[in-house]
Amino acid sequence: MDSFEINKIIAAVLVTILLVFGIEKISDIVFHVEKPAVEGYKVEVKLASTSSTEGNSESQVDISALLALGNIEDGKKIFKKCAACHSINADGKNKIGPKLWNVIFRPVGSIADYKYSKALVSYGKEWTWEEMNGFLIKPSKWI
């Protein structure tokens, strides 16, 4: 390979580099985009009123209206998450959680062969629809 061949190869590499940088500069001029003053997207957030007359929305839920909207098939699908810890059969055994057969209108913490937390044992109420709804929304806040 003579020096003329080497010069052609070096010239080709240099021309390629110059073309890449030149095209980049030309495209910046042709397709100029104004940069925003503040980077990112502006997100509109509607703040909820903190009026003291509103009260706790969790305690104001009408459970009978929610029950009327219920669907047994949807409930079966949702209960699959609960079935890992609870049984719903009459002859079902306690698992990680107590069996739930006839739980409504039963005293809280009343299954003899299940070890409940002190909070549930001392709660002293019975499971009504409202109690169960409040407990399922946020157990630590309800008990």
Automatic annotation (TrEMBL):
Q: Which residues form the Cytochrome c domain?
A: 70-143
Q: Which residues form a coiled coil?
A: none
Q: Which Gene3D superfamilies match?
A: Cytochrome c-like domain
Q: Which GO MF terms are attached to this record?
A: electron transfer activity; heme binding; metal ion binding
In the UniProt record, does the keyword Electron transport occur?
yes
Pfam families documented for this protein = Cytochrom_C (PF00034)
Which keywords appear in this protein's UniProt record, sorted alphabetically?
Answer: Electron transport, Heme, Iron, Metal-binding, Transport
What InterPro entries does UniProt report for this protein, alphabetically?
Cyt_c-like_dom, Cyt_c-like_dom_sf, Cyt_c_1A/1B
The answer to keyword Iron applying to this record is yes
What is the name of this protein? Cytochrome c domain-containing protein
Organism, scientific name:
marine metagenome
Lineage of the native species?
Answer: unclassified sequences, metagenomes, ecological metagenomes
